[in-house]
């Protein structure tokens, strides 16, 4: 049991968190403004509006994925783990040679 004692854990950066959440809020506001204020007259403008809003929504989804997928490193006595959103990789210190 002593072998699996946690020595250190990395933290998510507060600056990155603020930037991502600010980006999500501003992009959502931009999607709302584009949807409500852009009144297209011809079919080309309608398609441009749809493409623009889709690109902004995909950018918002990417920001959420990026925030959730930030790597966290756990360091134990004999190994360390790198955790992301869907997977955890375990590396033994004995595997590394200097």
Describe the model:
- It is a single chain.
- The mean pLDDT is 86.
- This protein has a four-stranded antiparallel β-sheet, with no helix packed on it.
- The longest helix has 26 residues, at 43-68.
- The chain is an alpha+beta fold and 98 residues long.
- 51% of the residues lie in helices and 19% in strands.
- A hairpin with a 2-residue loop joins strand 2 and strand 3.
Concise account of the structure shown:
The protein has helices spanning 14-37, 43-68, and strands at residues 6-9, 72-76, 79-83, 88-92.
Blueprint of the fold:
Layout: E1 6-9, H1 14-37, H2 43-68, E2 72-76, E3 79-83, E4 88-92
Antiparallel strand pairs: 1-2, 2-3, 3-4
Helix pairs in contact: 1-2
Q: How would you spell out the order of helices and strands? A: EHHEEE
Radius of gyration: 22 Å
Q: Which outline best applies?
A: elongated
Tell me, rounded to a whole number, the average pLDDT.
Answer: 86
Largest sheet: number of strands, sense, barrel closure? 4 strands, antiparallel
Tell me the structural class: alpha+beta
> How many DSSP helices?
2
The number of E-state strands comes to: 4
Biggest sheet, strands in spatial order?
A: 1-2-3-4
Portion of residues in beta strands equals 15-25%
């Amino acid at each position: 049991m002593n072998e699996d004692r946690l020595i250190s854990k990395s933290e998510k950066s507060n600056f990155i968190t603020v930037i991502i959440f600010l980006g999500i809020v501003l992009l959502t506001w931009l999607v709302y403004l584009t949807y409500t204020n852009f009144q297209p007259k011809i079919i080309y403008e309608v398609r441009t509006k749809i493409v623009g809003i889709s690109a902004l929504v995909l950018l918002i989804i990417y920001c959420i994925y990026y925030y959730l997928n930030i790597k966290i490193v756990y360091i134990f006595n004999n190994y360390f783990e790198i955790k992301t959103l869907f997977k955890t990789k375990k590396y033994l210190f004995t595997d590394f040679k200097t």
